[in-house]
Amino acid sequence: MTELERAGYAIEPLADAPGTASRRGGIIDVFPAGAERPFRVEFFGDEVESIRELDLVSQRSVSRLEQLHVPPAATSSSEAREAARTLLAEIEANGDQAEVIQEQLELLAEGNRSPFATFFEPLLYTETAASHLARGAMVVFDEPADGANALAVAVEHELRTRAELEGRGLIPTGLPPLRVGPEALRDALSNFQEVDLQRFGSEELGARRLPMAVTPSFAGKLRPLAQQAGAWAKQGRAIAIVSQQALRLAELLDDEGIRAEPRRRLTVAPNAGEIVLTPAALAGGFTLGESLTVISDSEVFGLRKRRRPTRNRASIRADLVSTLEIGDYLVHADHGIARYAGLVRRSVDGVEREYLELQYADRDRLYVPADQLESVSRYVGPTDHPPSLTKLGSQEWARAKRRVKQAVVELAQELLELYAKRELARGHAFGADNAWQMEMEAAFPFVETQDQLDAISEVKADMENTKPMDRLICGDVGYGKTEVAVRAAFKAVMDGKQVAVLVPTTVLAEQHGNTFRERVQGFPVRVEVLSRFRNEHQQREIVGGINSGEVDIAIGTHRLVQKDVAFKDLGLVIIDEEQRFGVSHKERLKQMRSEVDSLVLSATPIPRTLQMSLVGIRDMSTVMTPPEERQPIRTYVLQWDDELLRKAIDREMQRGGQVYFVHNRVHNIERIVTRLQTIVPDARIAVGHGQMPEEQLERVMMEFGAGEHDILVCTTIIESGLDIPNANTIIINDANTLGLAQLYQLRGRVGRSANRAYAYLLYDKDRTMSETAQKRLEAIFEATELGAGFQIALRDLEIRGAGNVLGTEQSGHIAAVGFDMYSKLVAEAVSALKKVVTPDAPAGPEPLPPPPLIDLPLSAHIPESYVPDIHGRLAAYQKIAEITSAEGVAEMQAELADRFGPVPRSVENLLYVALVRSMARRANVESLKTDEQMFHLRIRGGTTLETRSAVEALRLKSVITGPNQVRIDRIGAGTNWMPLVARVLRVMVEAAAK
């Protein structure tokens, strides 16, 4: 581990990012710099026993390796130390900050580690690419003149920036250049074979034409593809179709009468006249003369399918384990509100276990076994004020729950009216997918994530049901919610129905219009956008088309819900960011959605929408897998600083990007423009806000999208949906005055490409910031991980107050028990009333009784030496608590052994206790207690005839059945009591299931 640390690896509890490593006993996990996955090295003493590749999500081993190369993650080699000493002799500090750089170089020269090692790497490692090429290697220059010009501009910018920083004393003088110039690079590569690629090369000047051509594109038109492939095959040409949608493509080609032979792998070229199809990814197709044609997804669908690997999916519920800190307020289902005081180990009668220590009123303490985390949830209240702690041993908590239960019945009835209307309403049952549906979906330029596929499947199943769909699709910006909506809309149109797509802003309406048109081009589907960007004549024409049924998909703002718009045959309503619509618009939406299918898209759903989804009134699908190249947005919260803003904007402009500057005050927005023009005089600045004439606003937005402006100074009009991948820096002025979900949405306007994105949240140092505003900025600053939108929505509940969810009259009840417990009570009340409203509905599985109290004479815990990280230990406890079968125990034991090494006896005991608890719960056991002579299995409601008969059929003298319990003779069972208890519980479970 010392060597890894010296090589620049950060030692973390989990090796989940390049340049990190972790150790647990004789196991070392390391994520090598530049690798796609981490690796696990298991030692036996000083010898390496195995090297295994890991799955990043599950942290489980997936394959074995014979050897592993781990390159340095930062400067550490002897050559670097020598280079640091040489560099120290050549530089001269001319300011305080330059002296800091000099001090860090001295650390590196002595062989120590610097926290800023990556800053020095390009200064110490001055080799070029030519230094690593083999003698006689071929060097290919793609458009060498363009490359030389770009390099010259970069070198000039570096020299200018270096001179400025040296003049201000921020860096020492004498630092070497970061890159070589065009001429020096040419000289370094002059000893190698050189090939220049030029798009406009001519044979008269000695250019040679490559013996290949680009395969023509079919842009998603499968019939022309099939016809052309058949014609080429008849001419004797070999054809290889390489597609990540191979199975679907084979079916569609077969429908056109073209037989393509499937091949798992393609190691040799097909025979003449043969068409083969193989599942793989290829950047583009090509043709070699008249003998071979290779066709890729790029030619078939117009764009190459880009695979996005599965990442760790965010939890729907706020993750207690990963964020639990000492001092947090928790709610125990049976004992009430407490303060978390840490994880402690205690020994009682020689039995050692680990507990969550909860502090109650009057300094009382409760110790909750760590493997019973399901009984504990985080407290979220209606205000920022901390809750009152419950008094242990009193009836206070029971009375509070009783009061809230009575109060939520009325609320449950209100929610149930919505549910009943939806259950009783009969809508249109859409038909199964047709060939056009499959063809349109095949043209999607990405390989769908599993989240997307699940959401699409759930939406289609809802649409094919007679009950009107009411589903929320929750997922971060850019994660693929729109594609789910496009496929649902297309399915509706294929069944002869119209679709309304409601969006909050005109800009987003235009963008959705472009997206929908692009996806359904080539099919007989008419898409129109109705917004104030259309003049009166155009609006009349579009409204007429909607009313007559000629418009299939109508996309619009609130203009779409005005009285003159009357769809001829509306089948689906799609609402993007519902929280942006006003009360009157929502009432109109309710009328539109009463008997038609409804789909709501949101990154940060409003509390009421979230509440209805959590208690089962509205269905919910989550899309939480980020695109492959997406990086978290680097976020800064700071005061206005002219120099900092100049650097941020200049950096973005130098890499050819654009900047959003959000200032949500129209009356003085021009003053901001003037100030920015002074800070960055070379920048092209445009202004956009909702009070501008529609034509002018549209023109500004289109020009900014086309790259004609460097900075767009705007209001929060860009909050929803504006997709400009080239804009990767956003600066939000007076960020403390905006809501949390609003900040999250605004920040989501950048980072929509592979480039690193930056967000600067500015606040006024001369104005007092409220505690709520501070919490909002803290939350957005902390929510840097990908897919944090759902967590932001839950945190918004916490900050704004969950009392706003369903009206102020519920605020006191939420304060009394916390939002999580309140939601459970509402869900229970709704579930009970559902049975009254729909008695003929098929009965779902009966809810399990509460987990039983298990008291066994076993030391059952996870030693700190086995899993040192406290959050890792809590996560393991949580997974163990979820075990429901013997197979689950075996799977968990294998996972623990894989991740942490041989499983200690105390952990084996813990797994046994988890299995016993699961079986006891299904057998309706209320408690399993132990005394010196007996194990007492007390049955909730008493033993049944079936239970008594099943236990007595075992014919075991040490097992006794009674009217209320089953007893097992501990002394008679001896040391084999563990399998005996499990055996008795197993037959009790079977009896309870009959």
**How does the major sheet shape up?**
7 strands, parallel
Q: In percent, how helical is the residue content?
A: 25-40%
Summing up helix and strand content along with how strands pair, one would put the structural category as alpha/beta
Uncertain parts? 305-318, 784-809
Care to count the β-strands? 36
Mean pLDDT across residues: 80
The end-to-end span amounts to 56 Å
Shape: globular
Assembly of the depicted chains: single chain
Strand order of the largest sheet: 21-22-20-23-24-19-25
Radius of gyration: 33 Å
Number of helices: 32
Strand content: 15-25%
Can you describe what's shown?
The protein is of the alpha/beta class and 994 residues long. 39% of the residues lie in helices and 19% in strands. The chain contains 32 helices and 36 strands. The strands form seven sheets. It has a seven-stranded parallel β-sheet, with helices on both faces. The protein has a six-stranded mixed β-sheet with strand order 1-2-3-4-5-6, with helices on one face. The chain has a six-stranded parallel β-sheet with strand order 26-31-30-27-29-28, with helices on both faces. Strand 5 and strand 6 form a beta hairpin. The longest helix is centred in the middle third of the chain and has 29 residues, at 396-424. It starts with a helix and ends with a helix. Residues 305-318 and 784-809 have low confidence and may be disordered.
